[in-house]
Amino acid sequence: MHANEGDTIPPVALCGFTPRVAISQVVTPAPSWLVVADLDRLVSTMDVQVIALSECVVGPGFALDLDGLDTPSFHYIRQGHGWLYTSNEQPAEIGSQTLIIVPPHCPFRFELGPARPSAPGSAKLSRDRDRTETTAFMLCGIFRSLYGNSTDLFDTLRVPIVEQFSKDDGLELKLQLALTELISRQVCADVLASTTIKQVIVALIRRSVLSLQDWTRRFAALSVAGSPRAQVNSEKDNTK
After folding, report:
1. CA distance 13 to 1
2. SS3 223
3. In whole angstroms, what is the distance from residue 21 CA to residue 18 CA?
C-alpha cells in the first residue's frame, strides 16, 4: 500500500498490540562549558551504596528532626507542604515532589506549615497556634556515592540541595522501587536498590548542569583533573 502526502496511515496491529506513537520531547543541549564525556566517565564509575531507606510520615504537630549524620541523606516529599530548617540558613519552603540532599554533619528539620511561616527566620514553628497543614509523606534514605579514591560526591556540600521535580520525572516511582526491593530481601535486592538511587542522582545532575552556579555549588567534589568543573576553571584561567 502506498500512502500519499496528507493521507492518514492506520496503526498496524502486531500480535494483538497497537504500537504507540512516540511523542517527541524537547531536548535541552548540554552547556558549552560541560565536558560530557568526562562527566559520563565519572558517573559510570560512581559506586552508590544505600545504607538505609524508609517511608516517613509527618503529621500535624510533629516534625522530622535529625542530627547531623556522618553520611549524606536524601528526603523526597511525595505529598505535603512544609519548611526545611538547617543551621545558619533561612527556612526554605518545601512542596510535593521535592528532592532534598542533606550533606554530612548538617542538622536537618522538616516541619509542616502554611504557605508562610509565622516568624521568618525562626528555628521552629509554634505548635500552639491554629494549624491548617495536612500530613506529609516522605521517602528518606542514607547513602554513599563514591567515586575515584573513595571520595563521596557530596562530601564538600555545605548546604542542602533542594530541587523541585514533577511526577512525570519518575523519581517517586524509582524511590518506591528501591524501597520495595530492600523490603523484599530478594537476591540482588541491594544491587537493584543502589542502581535505582543512582538514577535519582543522575536526574539531579542533569538538572544541575543547566546552571553553572548550581553545578559548582552542588558538585564541588567534581573538581578533580579532567572533570567538568576543572575544565571550567581552566577556561577561566586562560581568559585572564
Report:
1. 16
2. coil
3. 9
Domain residue ranges in the chain = 47-116+133-219
- The secondary element (H helix, E strand) that includes residue 230 is helix 228-238
C-alpha cell recorded at residue 77: 516529599
Number of other CB atoms surrounding residue 65 within 10 Å = 13
Distance CA 29, CA 54 (A): 35
| AA letter at 58 | V
Question: What separation in angstroms does the CA of 183 have from each of 23, 178, 189, 190?
Answer: 35, 9, 9, 10
Phi then psi for residue 198, to 5 deg, are: -65, -35
Give yes or no for a contact between 110 and 75, defined as CB atoms under 8 angstroms apart. Answer: yes
Please list, residue by residue across 18-31, b when 16 or more beta carbons sit within 10 angstroms of its beta carbon and e when fewer do: eeeeeeeeeeeeee
- Residue 76 and residue 179: Cα distance in Å, rounded? 13
Q: How far apart are CA 67 and CA 65, in angstroms?
A: 7
pLDDT band at 192 (very low <50, low <70, confident <90, very high): very high
> Cβ distance 157 to 103 under 8 Å?
yes
Q: How confident is the model at residue 231 (pLDDT cuts 50, 70, 90)?
A: very low
CATH match for 47-116+133-219 among 1.10.10.60, 2.160.10.10, 2.170.16.10, 2.60.120.280: 2.60.120.280
pTM of the model: 0.73
